[in-house]
Amino acid sequence: MNFSEVFKLSSLLCKFSPDGKYLASCVQYRLVVRDASTLQILQLYTCLDQVQHMEWSADSLFILCAMYKRGLVQVWSLEQPEWHCKIDEGSAGLVASCWSPDGRHILNTTEFHLRITVWSLCTKSVSYIKYPKACLQGITFTRDGRYMALAERRDCKDYVSILVCSDWQLLRHFDTDTQDLAGLEWAPNGCVLAVWDTCLEYKMLLYSLDGRLLSVFCAYEWSLGIKSVAWSPSSQFLAIGSYDGKVRLLNHVTWKMITEFGHPAAVNNPKTVVYKEAKKSPPLALGHLSFPPSRAGACPLTATAESRYEVASVPVSLQTLKPAADRANPRMGVGMLAFSADSYFLATRNDNVPNAIWVWDIQKLRLFVVLEQLSPVRSFQWDPQQPRLALCTGGGKVYLWSPAGCVSVQVPGEGDFLVLSLCWHPSGDSLALLSKDHFCLCFLETKEGTGAAAGLRDGHV
Amino acid sequence: MGDWMTVTEPGLCAESNNISQYTSETKMSPSSLYLQQVLCSSIPLSKNVHSFFSAFCTEENIEQSISYLDQELTTFGFPSLYEEPKSKEAKRELNIVAVLNCMNELLVLQRKNLLAQENVETQNLKLGSDMDHLQSCYAKLKEQLETSRREIIGLQERDRQLQCKNRNLHQLLKNEKDEVQKLQNIIASRATQYNHDMKRKEREYNKLKERLHQLVMNKKDKKIAMDVLNYVGRADGKRGSWRTGKTEARNEDEMYKILLNDYEYRQKQILMENAELKKVLQQMKKEMISLLSPQKKKPREREDESTGTVISDVEEDAGELSRESMWDLSCETVREQLTNSIRKQWRILKSHVEKLDNQVSKVHLEGFNDEDVISRQDHEQETEKLELEIQQCKEMIKTQQQLLQQQFATACDDDTTSLLRDCYLLEEKERLKEEWSLFKEQKKNFERERRSFTEAAIRLGLERKAFEEERASWLKQQFLNMTTFDHQNSENVKLFSAFPGSSDQDNLTVHSRPRQKKLHSVSHGSAICTSKMTKSLPASPTSDFCQTRSYVSEHSSVNVLNITPEEMKPNQVGRECSNQTWSVASRPRSQEGCYSGCSLTYTNSHVEKDDLP
């Protein structure tokens, strides 16, 4: 495992291009595009203000930089550096901006969700979509980029519009039986749309592409409901994490629940492996003589203290937080969940056990591994190519899990590099580690590119 | 004195009943008169009773006393004391004899009465004690009654309390339920209120939004614009198309196409899954049939019992070929037949297995216990060995640590040398650290090895057990076949089937194809000998087969044909014949089956069984 040198970054804006060739990162008002393997700067664009959002187009030809404060979006072309495009939403304001799947249209959501403006890069045409609903996940595109589902709110009722992305024609429009729609998501095969209600009610609705209601799922009533939703890449399972600390798996044939994964604080099953991150303790178990710990003197900070994984003997009780019952959005329930690329594993985090990641075996439908960290898990992401999970806890380390085992790696470099977020290269060969104002790349396989990157001298941008 | 009369014996009493009445009437007796007199005169009672009674008759009143006594006695039925008067004027004379008689009678009476009194007294005593006993009993019972009454009261009290509690709890439950209901109602009402308010707010918000929209969008905001250097081509290279009804229809078409594709894909998957399952089912059925077929080909009487099933099975077997093609055609027609047949087969198999299980559990309770222990011993030995190895490794590590410590110590001795050595030491340290990690790795490996070995040992034990069971079941099955097949030779069969597998089995199973014909003829020749021999064999089931074999070879050597022991393979012959009858005998594991088969065919060949199919 090799690490590149550290580069400057702001607002955690660092993204690999979808084709994996480039790496774009933002530093204040500048956009830097590098070669993803050599990390050489290929392009440098200057925006009008500090970039708040940055996104690659699906064909990796354009980059969108949104400056919400100014209501501005700037688009840059990788092929033609002199090409420029600036979209000004004016007094309508801007709260969100994203690419359409074809990479030729930009969807801008104005302030107060008054409308969504669809700007085309090919023609002068501008389309407006009225009544978009202000919710967490109100727009979703099918994986093939043909259709877009949009949550709408009219006359105090929730509607879903399905639009054809090629010409922005309305294909279907139907109302949903929800109190307050919270989100929607296409199945990866693009034929089923999952729509869920606000957390006040546990309700999951499944619609076919042609607007037929396929099924309704409600696990319980009265208490807080759905917190997170994820489709398996095979479209076979829909995992629903809820505030009761459980994940429910629905199947794609009957849309009934297959199983329920509870997240108790005590792990009792002897078949489950519990990896526990432990501070590396100087006295070794075998002998009485201790080797002087090499880094203890150099790094007194706890964030960079040596630690490693230990396999805990199985009746393990995990550290739990007591959620404040009198506050809104309590820290409890399954707030993060993700399937591995091959759909064999599901990683979840229960928010009142923030230090632990549960990894479930979907083939056997049972708990496979629990990783307990020393500090709360900030984010985790599956390798897009193989069952390998990377996670970070806001400390100076990155952690990797695969069915073969578990490893924690200290990010090298002077000063402390606190990993707040990470993202995989589409090939799964490297990993971008993002801290508050720096990022570096972690190369997992020794390749000729790595050496070049390591030897690369690059001025601070 | 009246009392006296009442306690007379019943016989006497009946007699004297009227008499007493009479006496009561004649109250005026001289003695009573006298008594009154005496009492009145208040003579001091210091005189004894005797003297008092002797005072009854005095010199003066002899006559009177006699007459009084006579009167009294006659009233009691005694004869008169006076002689029968000769004449009316003559004075009545006292009859001494009568007096004496009367006296005697009175004495007798007196004695009798005394006796009676005694009896009565004892009876009285007895009754008194009885009374006492009964009284005590009564007291006791009374006490018991009291206690039980108290208990009952206590229990009633408790019951009452519990009922009270229960009522309270019911009340509480009801209250709670009411509370829950109330809370739910509150929640519901609040929710509706909230929803209502939300709606109101949302309407207001929408109005505001609308207004804002008008204000912001209709102002012809110059700022809302896109500034592009030049428009770029579409990603697909095509030009945008006009929106018409056609495009709408095309979109619909495409959508349905996508949906159809998805459904087709899923159907294909389901079909594939179905086909797989069908295949498995078919295979299972075939295997079941093959497994159960030896049972089917049982003696006639068995066949008669289960004629229906066998016939249907035969039909199925016959229709197997046509069936194969039917599989692919449609499931509907075949499904029912298939499931039925599978179910039937399964039932047969299940009952069979259960039967075997029962037998096996009986026979093999003691069988594999010691073997299990052996495997455990093996395992323990191995773990010991591994532990020893680990120990050695630990020691090695320790010595290295010590060496390192020494090095440190020496390094501390001299500053200058330590400075010189520092770099070396660092290097050494690094190296040692590496070694250390290596050793840890090794230790881990050992641990893993140990674990895997224990697992393997356990698996081995299980496998052995399974194998034992299988062997036992085979034995049983074979035995069953034998017994049902040939009743005459049942004792021979038992003898052979009980023979445990030995190392000889391996070379016994070696075949020699070209010799089979010869052997067959040989078997005919030696058949009589073996059949005789088996009868002469000791009946103990542990008889060594080697013995029997040698015995066989001896007998066969009597024949003109000269056969080496290797050629003289009884199981080979047995296989030859039994192949037609049982497919079971051809299974490689069932060497015992071969033995039994051999014995059977030996006997069969000369008996010329008529019940062979």
Question: What would a concise description of this structure say?
Answer:
The complex is a heterodimer of chains A (461) and B (613). Chain A has 461 residues and is an all-beta fold.
Can you describe this structure?
- The complex is a heterodimer of chains A (461) and B (613).
- With 461 residues, chain A is an all-beta fold.
- Chain A has a domain at 1-130 and 414-446: Methylamine Dehydrogenase, Chain H, CATH 2.130.10.10.
- Chain A has 1 helix and 41 strands.
- In chain A, the strands form 10 sheets. Chain A has a 6-stranded mixed beta sheet, with no helix packed on it.
- The longest helix of chain A has 8 residues, at 448-455.
- Chain B has 613 residues and is mainly α.
- Chain B has a domain at 95-219.
- Chain B is built from 19 helices and 1 strand.
- In chain B, helix 7 crosses helix 11, helix 16 crosses helix 17 and helix 18 packs across helix 19 (591-607).
- The longest helix of chain B is centred in the N-terminal third of the chain and has 122 residues, at 96-217.
- Chain B starts with a helix and ends in a 6-residue tail after the last helix.
- The model of chain B is unreliable at 1-49, 298-322 and 485-613 (pLDDT under 50).
- At the A-B interface, strand 10 of A face helix 6, strand 1, helix 7, helix 12 and helix 13 of B.
- Strand 10 of chain A pairs antiparallel with strand 1 (225-228) of chain B.
